[in-house]
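In response to reviewer comment 3 from the previous cycle, which asked for concrete evidence that the modeling workflow produces usable outputs, we include below a single protein chain processed end to end. The sequence was submitted unchanged, and the resulting structure tokens are shown without manual editing.
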Amino acid sequence: MALIGMGLKANQSVGLFSINREEWCITEQACFASGLVTVPLYDTLGVESIAYICDQTEMEIIFTSSDKLKLLTSMIKEIKNVKKIVCYDFLSAEDSAKYTEATKESGLEILKRLLNLDHLVPKICAQFVTLREQLECPKVSCYLTLPF
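The workflow returned the following structure tokens.
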């Protein structure tokens, strides 16, 4: 698994900091399959609470969306255990350079999407709908939210 390949071990905490979205669910399921503990983080908790949670759980990695990167990079000194931030979104070259510069001295690594693959989502979902119809499995639709 990719998470284990990142050096994470069973029962280690993984932060999830974004609005509810497909990537959140995929990350959460990958964590469960790898024996990792997910720790949701929310804006409404405030900076001090987020830092406290990261410290108490000895969290080394946070999965987030691009709109939360500014907050996380401003907290570098408070989230000392965090070694990696994985951004779900594609970042422009300008934003990528900005965040790399902001984290250079701390050693915090920001992993980001290298390609913008959003155009493939409708094709993948259409293939899934076709497969579901072929399997004649109406219960599947209760568990998935398709973006169309």
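The first helix runs from residue 2 to 5. We consider this sufficient to address the reviewer's concern, and the full set will be provided in the supplementary archive.
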